[in-house]
Each structure stands twice: as structure tokens, then as C-alpha cells.
Specification:
The complex is a heterotrimer. Chain B is mainly alpha-helical. Chain B is built from 15 helices and four strands. The chains are: A alpha/beta, B mainly alpha, C mainly alpha.
């Protein structure tokens, strides 16, 4: 740490005027450049996480530090791309790094390199406290994908809908598979059973393709009365597919995460629930924890900060809508 | 002045100018730290990943054909390696041979269809692209029950294909990329095969009449593009200890864009390996360099698009200048270099 | 029409392909696939990609490509959602805004393709990236989010996002209307021959007095408008616009066109062929979910179909040429 202060001080001393030094010295001691690795910028869920991280970053910036968001261009090559971004954060001289453990085989060596370089690390969004412990990270912030799926399955199962299918539009992504297996286990815990509807990769992001696939699946499997989908777009399309199959009111849907249209669905009763990982909080907490740790040595004794799963249904949807309006969710 | 005009005649010129333009843009508007960018591995690793495929794709485009099945071949190579050596536990050499073998087979199919039918190669390779996407996805699910397969490679394979070098984050694939580039440069600019490629791209019929084995050479080029793509996939599977299925649609556009920024004419007959090399670096810096700037990453696609259009417009202008300039000097070879 | 004349029509292969594929999936899919639910299922898919495939097919007949449709779909959808959902303007303003985006991108494509010597494949890859970047950047700037919801008024909904009988999307009717209009344009109006002429030989066409430049720009505007229309219809149907997505339309539309017998070399093809190709594509895409097979096998079938279409095209062309020479 000492070395770091000296470098920072000498760089500042060399480049700015005397007056500025006086102003900066007091802040230079606490200037954490935090790098956050996350999803692609046009992903609705990740744009919330990014906003949370950037909002927490305003504190870091006020103290002279910064928050830089690194995300892949697409999800074609998820594990390697994310591992690359982690190494890039090291190369860019990060003082602290936040990253999700999506594909452990591909990404763990890069996380180990972060810890070996003495850079404080927080794992968030995927991996759980187990991954954080294994990698030597400070903490884990986020929902556990499996538990989130489980919450959805349990919710529907307890409501008496026990024959489920989970829609997977990103075959191969470890976190989506965890959501789905959690959902199926959640159903089983209430005495139901679940299955997975695999869509070809070309359906990703195309609402009509998802809706029609859901509809065909329901027509071929008339016993299904519970469905689970990941992300606002897919969930919305699933709701539409159910309506087109003439099964509104017979097949009940829960989805991961929400956006405005999902809240509309819940208000109108076309969707039973949304399981919220509270992405804004994931970004916000992870960055805040690291900023305080780097700047002031503050450690958070609570290990595994779970931001979810929180279930949004007709009982609390109005409150959530208020939160969205305030920009806090 | 003579140096200037000689510079402008080269296919690589526009890519050099694009590179300078991009760096200037990032420097002025993004406040990029060039020293940090130069030392960083991320864009070099990315350039190597697309560059290994871009070299043979560039040669193929100079010969007047195109291959978009490469998009599916990168994940196909990775999955083949991981399924054979990870899931079934066979020695890694079988995984490597399996990945390269798939490349050879798909390349042969593309090539044979290209020379036996009158159908444009874009459509033929679109067919193999979609079919390979399905085969890789369905194959992995049917064989392993999973769309993501772990792999642990022995040390020698890691050293050769999947290691980090220079004690940091640079991948050994970069060395392979340089080797591929040198090989491509030798083939295109130093051996007689290079003249064949230019001749095929210029006019297939007269090339055939001149005694060039056009059909066999076209098939060979298709085998090279597909195999280099599966090679990249194989290296990635070994480096990242796993392989996942994916569509690979984005790689297609990225690789074609790199080649075109590098001054290769899509309709064939014009281009150079140094151009492709610099075009790849330019594309990689546009794509990965934005992380080193203050510019919001949300705008990266916009910058890529504008850079691509600007580069091809420049290429166009310079190519016309080059083609108009050549006859006066009576240097027929000039247009080809 | 004699047997030979039927065999050499470009649509014949497409009809055979469609029938074979339909029978295959009917055998696997059972009653649900043969009945109205099955029909509406694949027709809904066909309508969307079909509306884009029509102008893309015409462009291909005239020897050009349009990759940018993949980014126009979400761009138009987002524009309409921001205008009518975020700013609360009337629906028709949002619709016009979305269509305007499509027309503008189409015009830029056409301008660049006709004024420079850059191949249209590259031009439209470039505009695709530009439009993708602008959509994302502006959506985040304006809305602070990459998804915008919009609840259309009942009239708009019934025109653009309604399910007839609860299953047939109203876009099927739009698709039929588009197909009729394009049929008239290509096969009845004099301009149709111009399209074929440009595809055959641009120089000769220009020398023959055909306004090749205006026609090409016009075709690009049409494909931009069609893609924008699909984006708007998706917004009205699902009541939400997403920045991501739409990329699937790029290759899907080209595949429909090729399966329908249009050659990339330009100069040949028909609107009926494109429609049949789209139906074949949609039957495979949806049939797979009724069949109980692994959904990825659908991709293998489509890839094989594409290659078969390509090979039979060659076969039919050879047959046609032989037939023509025999007649002489």
C-alpha cells in the first residue's frame, strides 16, 4: 500500500501545479480505481447492475477514484471473454476487481491471478460464497442462481402448479442451467416435477421465436401448468406464447428479473411472479465494499451478501413500481 | 513524393491510416493512455483469435470466394477437443486431431461444393454454417448431456497451444498468429502460389487456361479457412479448460470486417497479408481499446461501424489510385502487391 | 403447361421442398401440428421473417445484400417505444418514427452502395454496426435502460399486434398483403423486369435506360421499411422493446430467400418462391418443437435444406437449359 501511495503522489506532484497538490494530497490517499466485469451493455439486467456499480462509483469518484465497466460484446464465447476481461483489468492497473464466476473452468485461473497480484477481489452475481472462498476473494455479493430458480419453483409448486418447464434460450451458459435445475428442484420439493425446454441458439433475443416455441411445447405437453423463463424478454414472450396456446389462467409463469413490462404483467395477472436478483444492489454493494476496503481498510464481516432471491408478485408489485420510479430498482 | 505515391499504392495503406485514425480518436476523445494500451494483452489476444482465421479468409477472398462457416467452426473445434479429450478422457492428441479433422472435413465439403456447383460460396458456406451449428449443439447435448464440457489438458499441450506468456496475460496463440501471418505472407507474396491466388481472383477462366489448378487450389483454401478456425477453437479449449457451444455469428462479421479494413477487395484479386495483419490489429484496438478510454462502452458498435465504413471508403479511393497509377509505370506486378 | 414447363419453373423445387418437410413433421408432430394450432404456430414465425425476406429477396435478385435488417428491427422497435411509451406521444407518431428510422437507414445503404464501389455486403455490415451502436447508446441516454415497455391503444394493437382467434398473429395478413404488393411489383409492373435486368447485368441495364441507381436505392428503402415494420409489430405484440435481438433475422431472411430458389448471383427468382421458401423455413423451425426431437436438429435440417436447395437450383437450371436447347 505504501508503495502505491508514493507512486500516486509522485505522479501527481510531477504533473499538476502546487495549488492542485494541496487539494489532491488529501484525496490521493483514498483513490480506488475499481474494475467491474459484467454482462454485455445491451442486456437489460446487466444495464441495471452497471447503473448500480456506477452509482456506487460516484462516491469513489468523489474520493478521487474511478469505476470502469468491462463487458463482452456478445455471449458467444462467454467464459474465455470474461476471463480475458479479468486479466485486462489487472493490466489496466486495477486497485480492486469485481467479477462474476460464470464459467469456473475458464475463469478461475484469471481470478487466481487477481488474488496472486494482491488485488482485492469480490465475486458477484454467480458462483456463490463457495467460489469466493476457493478463489481467496473477500466476499460474494449476489443471489445464488440455483436458489433463485428454486424460489420460483417453490412459489409455483406451493400454489398448486406442479408440472413445470423451464425455458432455456442460452444452452451452455452455466448460470441459466443453474436457474433451470433450481426451478425443477423447487417444484420437486413441493411434490411436482419439472423439465427443460431447450431452444436453438438462434432463438435468443427473438420474442416471436420464443413465444412460438413455448406455444408448441404447451400444445404437445398439455399437462404443463407452470413455466419459468430467464430475463424480462424471454418471460414476456413466454406469457404471450401461453396466451396464444389458449392457456391463460391454466399455465402459470414465474420469470427471473423484471422490467416495466414484467411489472405490468404481474399487475394484470398474466404472470404469477418475478424472482428478483436485484441486480442494481449487486453492482452497488460490490463496488461500495471494495471502495471502502481499499480506501479505509473497512472490512465487511458479513460474508455472502445475498441480494436475492426476492419474489415480486401481486402482493408487493405496487411497492416495486414505486422503487423503479425512484430509480432504486 | 515517390515514396508517398508508392505508399498510397499499397493495399495496406488504408489500414495503416485507419489504425492511426482510431488511435488518434481514442487519444483525443477518450484520453487513452497509449503506454498502457501498448502493454496490454487484451487486444493482442483478441487480434490473435480473429487474426489466425483472418489470414486464410483473406487469401480466400483475394481468390474471389468467401467462407462464413468459420463462425461455427471455432466452437466446433473447441467442442471436438473438449468432448474427445475431456468427456471421453482420450489423450489430448486425439482431441487435437479431432478438432483439426472436423476443420478438414467441413473445408472439403465447402470446397467441393464451391467448385462443382455454380452457387455463390456465401450461400454454400451459409448452409454449412447453419448445419454445423446444429451438429455441434445437438452433438454435444446428445453425447455429453450438456452444452458445456470441461477439459484438463496435459502440460505439453498447454505449453504449445494454451499458455500465458511473458509472465502476464499474453496468450501463446499470439505466437501462432505471427507464424500464420508469416506463412501467409510467404505464400501470397513470395511463392508462385500467390500469383495463382491473385490470378484466380482476377479471372477464374483465364487462370484455368493459364494452367493453374484452380479447382484443387480453391478446395485447399477452403480447407485452410475451416481448419484454422477449428485450430483457434482447439487452442481456446485447452487454454480455458472448457468449451461451450455457441452460434459464433459475431465472429463472422468481425473477421470479415478485419480482412476488409485490411484492404482486401471482397470481389477478389486485390489485397495483401500485411494489410490483413494491420486490419486485424485495427479492429482489435477499436473493439478492446475502448475499455482503456473514458468513452462509454455502449458506443463501441457505433465506432466499429463508422471505422469500417471509413476504412473501406479510403481503400476504395486508394485502390483506384493504385490501379490508375500502375499502367503508367508499366509495372504489372504493382497492382498485385 | 407441359410437364417440362412445370419442372423448369423456379418455384417447383420450393414446392417439393415444402411438401416433403411438411409431411415429415406432420408424421412426427401429430394432430396438434396438422391442426389450426400448428398452422398458426409456423405461420406466425413465417409472417415476421417473410415480410423481411420479400425485399431482401428482391435485392438479391438485383444482385445486392442487406445485412443491416438485423439491426433495424430493434432500432425501429426501440424508436417507436421511446416516442410513444417514454414520451407518451400518440401511437402513429411512434410508428412513423420507427418506419422513418428504417427508411433512413435504407436510404443510407442505397446511397453508399450506388455512389461507391464498395460491395453491398460490406456497406450493410458497416451500417449494421452503426445502427446497433446508436440504438444502444441512445436508448441508455434517453431511457437509462435497454428495454422500454409500451402499452398500445386498442386500435393500434388490433392492427399490428393482435392474435386472431387467440392464435393467428395479425402480421400474417400483413405478410400476405406485402407478398401481393411485391408480386405485382416484380412480375406485373414494368419495374420488375428492371430488377431482373440489374441482377443480370448492371452495365447493360443502365445502358438500356433503366434508372439503376434510383431503383437500387428504392429497394434498400423498402427493405429498411419492412424490417422497421416487423420491429414495430413486435413492439405492439409483446408490448416491450429490447435493444438486443434481431440479429437472427439477417441470416434467416437470406435462408428463406435461397430455399425459395433465388440465387445470389442475381437475375433469377420469384416472389412465390420466396414465400414458399419462407414457409418451408418456418415449418422446420416450428415443426421441431412439435416433433419431440432435440430442437438443435432443426438447424441441421435447415442447413441440409439450404444445401439441397442450392444443389437442386443447379440441377433445375441445367434441366431448364437442356429443355430450352431441345425446343430449338
Amino acid at each position: 500500500m505504501e508503495d502505491f501511495h508514493m507512486k500516486k503522489l509522485s505522479r501527481i506532484a510531477a504533473s499538476v501545479s502546487v495549488a492542485a497538490i494541496a487539494a489532491c494530497v488529501s484525496t490521493a490517499v483514498m483513490a480506488a480505481n475499481i474494475f467491474v466485469v459484467g454482462g454485455k451493455p445491451d442486456d437489460p439486467f446487466w444495464s441495471r447492475v452497471k447503473m448500480g456499480a456506477e452509482d456506487a462509483g460516484k462516491v469513489a469518484e468523489a474520493q478521487g477514484g474511478s469505476v470502469t465497466w468491462l463487458g463482452p460484446q456478445n455471449y458467444d464465447n462467454l467464459g474465455p471473454d470474461a476471463a480475458e476481461l479479468i486479466r485486462q483489468a489487472i493490466d489496466q492497473g486495477a486497485d480492486a476487481i469485481v467479477g462474476p464466476d460464470w464459467v469456473p473452468e475458464a475463469m478461475d485461473p484469471a481470478f487466481k491471478a487477481v488474488v496472486d497480484a494482491g488485488i482485492p477481489l469480490v465475486i458477484y452475481n454467480a458462483g456463490g460464497i463457495e467460489a469466493a472462498d476457493k478463489l481467496g476473494a473477500l466476499n460474494y455479493v449476489g443471489a445464488v442462481d440455483y436458489k433463485s430458480g428454486f424460489a420460483g419453483g417453490e412459489y409455483l409448486g406451493k400454489a398448486g402448479h406442479q408440472n413445470g418447464a423451464c425455458v432455456n434460450t442460452l444452452p451452455g451458459a452455466a448460470n441459466i442451467e443453474a436457474f433451470c435445475s433450481g426451478f425443477n428442484d423447487g417444484l420437486e420439493s413441493t411434490g411436482g416435477k419439472g423439465s427443460v425446454l431447450q431452444l436453438p441458439a438462434t432463438a435468443y433475443g427473438n420474442a416471436t421465436a420464443v413465444a412460438q416455441a413455448v406455444r408448441a411445447h404447451l400444445l404437445q405437453n398439455p399437462d404443463i401448468d407452470a413455466m419459468f423463463a430467464i430475463g424480462g424478454g424471454d418471460t414476456n414472450a413466454t406469457v404471450s406464447g401461453i396466451a396464444q396456446a389458449g392457456k391463460s389462467g391454466q399455465v402459470f409463469v414465474c420469470g427471473m428479473n423484471f422490467d416495466d413490462s414484467i411489472l405490468d404483467n404481474i399487475q394484470q395477472g398474466t404472470q404469477a411472479c418475478a424472482v428478483d436478483q436485484q441486480g442494481y444492489q449487486q453492482g452497488f454493494f460490490a463496488v461500495s465494499i471494495l471502495n471502502n476496503y481499499v480506501n479505509y481498510g473497512v472490512t465487511i464481516p458479513t460474508r455472502e451478501i445475498l441480494t436475492g432471491p426476492g419474489v415480486v408478485d401481486s402482493s408487493n408489485v405496487e411497492l416495486v413500481i414505486e422503487g423503479v420510479k425512484a430509480g432504486a430498482r | 513524393m515517390d515514396i508517398m505515391s508508392a505508399f498510397i499504392r499499397r493495399p495496406a495503406t488504408a489500414s495503416v491510416l485507419s489504425l492511426i485514425g482510431v488511435l488518434l480518436f481514442y487519444f483525443i476523445f477518450g484520453g487513452v493512455d497509449l503506454e498502457k494500451l501498448g502493454g496490454a494483452a487484451s487486444w493482442l489476444n483478441y487480434a490473435a483469435r480473429i487474426g489466425i482465421v483472418a489470414i486464410p479468409v483473406g487469401l480466400l477472398m483475394i481468390s474471389g470466394e468467401i467462407d462464413i462457416s468459420i463462425g461455427a467452426m471455432i466452437p466446433a473445434g473447441a467442442m471436438a477437443t473438449a468432448i474427445i479429450s475431456g468427456y471421453y478422457g482420450l489423450p489430448i492428441i486425439f482431441g487435437i486431431l479431432g478438432a483439426l479433422g472436423i476443420g478438414v472435413i467441413v473445408g472439403l465439403i465447402n470446397g467441393v461444393l464451391a467448385v462443382r456447383t455454380t452457387v455463390p460460396t456465401l450461400i454454400i458456406t451459409l448452409g454449412t454454417l447453419i448445419a454445423m451449428q446444429g451438429i455441434v449443439l445437438a452433438g454435444s447435448v446428445i453425447l455429453t448431456g450438456n452444452a458445456s464440457v470441461p477439459l484438463s489438458a496435459p502440460d505439453w499441450a498447454k505449453t504449445l497451444f494454451g499458455q500465458l506468456i511473458f509472465g502476464g496475460s499474453h496468450q501463446v496463440v499470439i505466437i501462432w498468429w505471427l507464424a500464420f501471418t508469416l506463412l501467409g505472407w510467404f505464400i501470397l507474396h513470395q511463392s508462385r502460389f500467390g500469383n495463382w491466388i491473385f490470378a484466380m481472383g482476377g479471372d477464374k477462366v483465364s487462370a484455368r487456361n493459364a494452367g493453374i489448378p484452380v479447382d484443387r487450389f480453391t478446395i485447399l483454401l477452403f480447407v485452410l479457412t475451416a481448419t484454422s478456425a477449428s485450430f483457434v477453437g482447439m487452442c481456446h479449449a485447452i487454454l480455458f479448460n472448457s468449451a461451450q457451444v455457441s452460434g459464433g455469428m459475431n465472429d463472422i462479421f468481425n473477421i470479415i470486417a478485419s480482412v476488409v479494413v485490411g484492404g482486401v477487395l471482397l470481389s477478389g484479386g486485390f489485397g495483401s497479408v500485411p494489410g490483413i495483419f494491420i486490419g486485424t490489429i485495427t479492429f482489435a484496438i477499436v473493439n478492446k481499446g475502448i475499455d482503456f478510454t473514458d468513452i462509454d462502452r455502449n458506443w463501441s458498435s457505433l465506432i466499429i461501424g463508422v471505422m469500417l465504413l471509413a476504412a473501406v471508403l479510403m481503400n476504395n479511393r486508394f485502390r483506384n489510385m493504385a490501379l490508375n497509377y500502375v499502367p503508367r509505370k508499366k509495372d504489372k506486378g504493382g497492382s498485385a502487391k | 403447361m407441359s410437364l417440362g414447363a412445370i419442372a423448369i419453373r423456379p418455384e417447383t423445387a420450393s414446392v417439393v421442398g415444402l411438401v416433403v418437410v411438411y409431411i415429415f413433421f406432420a408424421a412426427f408432430g401429430g394432430a396438434a401440428f396438422i391442426g389450426a394450432p400448428g398452422w398458426s404456430s409456423w405461420l406466425n414465425i413465417a409472417a415476421e421473417v417473410g415480410i423481411i425476406a420479400l425485399p431482401v429477396g428482391l435485392l438479391m435478385i438485383s444482385g445486392e445484400f442487406d445485412i443491416s435488417v438485423g439491426s433495424i428491427v430493434p432500432a425501429a422497435s426501440m424508436t417507436a417505444a421511446i416516442i410513444s411509451g417514454h414520451y407518451d406521444w400518440p401511437a402513429y407518431v411512434g410508428i412513423l418514427g420507427g418506419l422513418g428510422v428504417g427508411a433512413l437507414v435504407g436510404y443510407v445503404n442505397g446511397f453508399l452502395v450506388t455512389r461507391t464501389a464498395i460491395p453491398s455486403l460490406i456497406v450493410t455490415i458497416g451500417t449494421m454496426f452503426v445502427v446497433m451502436g446508436l440504438t444502444l447508446g441512445l436508448a441508455v441516454l434517453i431511457k437509462g435502460s435497454t428495454s422500454v415497455s409500451y402499452v398500445p391503444d386498442p386500435i393500434t394493437k388490433s392492427l399490428l399486434g393482435h392474435f386472431i382467434n387467440g392464435m393467428f398473429n395479425v402480421s400474417i395478413i400483413w405478410w400476405i398483403a406485402f407478398a401481393v404488393a411485391f408480386y405485382y411489383f416484380l412480375h406485373i409492373s414494368p419495374m420488375g423486369n428492371w430488377v431482373f435486368a440489374i441482377g443480370g447485368d448492371r452495365e447493360t441495364a443502365r445502358n438500356a435506360g433503366i434508372p439503376t441507381r434510383q431503383l437500387t436505392v428504392g429497394l434498400y428503402i423498402l427493405s429498411g421499411l419492412a424490417a422497421a415494420f416487423v420491429g414495430i409489430a413486435q413492439l405492439m405484440t409483446y408490448q416491450s422493446a429490447q435493444v438486443a435481438g434481431g440479429q437472427a433475422f439477417i441470416f434467416n431472411s437470406i435462408m428463406c430467400v435461397v430455399i425459395g430458389g433465388v440465387l445470389l448471383t442475381g437475375g433469377a427468382g420469384s416472389v412465390i418462391g420466396i414465400v414458399l421458401g419462407t414457409m418451408t423455413f418456418a415449418v422446420v423451425n416450428q415443426g421441431i418443437f412439435f416433433s419431440g426431437l432435440d430442437s438443435n436438429i432443426g438447424s441441421i435440417i435447415i442447413g441440409a435444406l439450404l444445401l439441397a436447395a442450392v444443389l437442386s437450383n443447379d440441377g433445375f437450371r441445367a434441366l431448364a437449359l437442356r429443355y430450352a436447347t431441345k425446343k430449338k
